[in-house]
Write a structure and sequence with these properties.
Length: 217
């Protein structure tokens, strides 16, 4: 009987160690996968950043047609928007590491450059329906967070409805981007979250999609 108990003990120990090792290996695999995905996001943001700079040069090309400039801007805005949405999955599921913060800041810079390009195109071609959503990335204010959740869902639905008729540019304001700070001061935006429509109308409180559409051209 003693031998049987000893045998059972070693079996239990073996199973415990085996499960521990399997869990450890799986954890390492998941962490490596997460790291690889973050690396992909980082390099994708690099490509998009250079693409944005190239877009700025196209915008200043006098031979470029307004239709082409608007189409390129809308496509680029949608591309960057979708890339940043993928990054938000890490924000939701993981602690904000320095890598995630850096990539997020690059996308905020990207969207600031996009906003500047849109302003330049408007000078040449007339108004392009655009909505710039300015929010706080690092905030513990429960009221602000709840407002931003409402605005995020509302503007996402608006973009889905308007599709390629609207450029949606969400930008975090607390990333120490000087060019963004200049634009914010230029348009007199004081509180966040805020929504600037076509560089004219500023909304601080959420409204219905129909009410926002009244500000569009």
């Amino acid at each position: 009987m003693f031998e049987n108990k000893k045998h059972v003990f070693w079996q239990a120990l073996f199973v415990t160690v085996l499960l521990f090792l399997m869990g450890f290996v799986f954890g390492v695999y998941i962490e490596q996968l997460r790291s690889d995905n973050l690396s992909t996001s980082f390099y994708q943001s690099e490509v998009s950043l250079y693409d944005s700079l190239a877009l700025g040069k196209i915008t200043s090309d006098s031979s470029a047609s307004c239709d082409d400039l608007k189409k390129i801007s809308i496509n680029f805005a949608d591309k960057v928007y979708n890339e940043a949405k993928e990054l938000e999955k890490y924000d939701d599921k993981n602690k904000l590491t320095d890598s995630i913060k850096t990539i997020h800041k690059k996308y905020d810079l990207l969207r600031t450059l996009l906003w500047m390009n849109v302003i330049d195109i408007e000078k040449k071609c007339g108004a392009i329906n655009n909505v710039v959503y300015l929010y706080q990335y690092n905030t513990d204010d429960v009221v602000v967070k709840s407002q931003q959740v409402v605005w995020g869902r509302l503007l996402s639905d608006l973009k889905t409805k308007e599709s390629d008729k609207l450029i949606l540019i969400p930008i975090a304001v607390d990333q120490n981007i000087e060019s963004l700070n200049y634009l914010i001061n230029k348009y007199g935006i004081k509180n966040y979250p805020a929504v600037l429509i076509n560089e004219k109308d500023i909304l601080y409180q959420p409204k219905t999609i129909e009410e926002i559409e009244n500000y569009l051209k």
